Amino acid sequence: MADRLLQVARVAGAFGVRGEIRITTFTEDPLALAAYRVLTREDGSPGLTITTARAVKGAVIARATGIDTRDQAEALRGLKLFIAREALPAPDDDEFYHADLLGLILETPEGELMGKVKTIQDFGAGDLIEVQPPMGASWWLPFTRETVPEVRLAEGKLIAVRPAEIDGDADEG
Prior knowledge:
It contains three helices and twelve strands. The protein is mainly beta. The chain has two domains: 5-87, RimM (Elongation Factor Tu (Ef-tu), domain 3), CATH 2.40.30.60; 98-159, SH3 type barrels (Roll), CATH 2.30.30.240. The strands form two sheets. Strands 3-4-5-2-1-6 form a six-stranded antiparallel sheet. Residues 7-86 form the RimM N-terminal domain.
């Protein structure tokens, strides 16, 4: 079975005139990208082999094998870069890679199916799980210990508590 690939970066374009590449990273430590060195395309084919990298605000400036000119670097703009999930370090206790949670089933503590994890986003106030119920529109659940007290990766599920619904003020028009 092929390794599951995770997107870790995207080429933003050229940097300077000597073939350096500006790369937007999706890793906690932007320079972790350099440690992986060989990055693939989504289909698993070779993408970039990073030879040197330095962090700048919001990105990494890198040199890569075979990229020597600004035009070559600019031609890579938009290239999505991936690594095998197995290449990532094991997360600490009570930490999870979002990719490991996607597709998991959400159940109440009583065993009632709530749906599946569709996506996980952070819009600035912490992680939110987009729950896709068996029928109907998706909804958002904060990914906190209070609302998701148990993560059972081996069982492929999260135990979740649906927050109380907040109704609007009946007196408002």
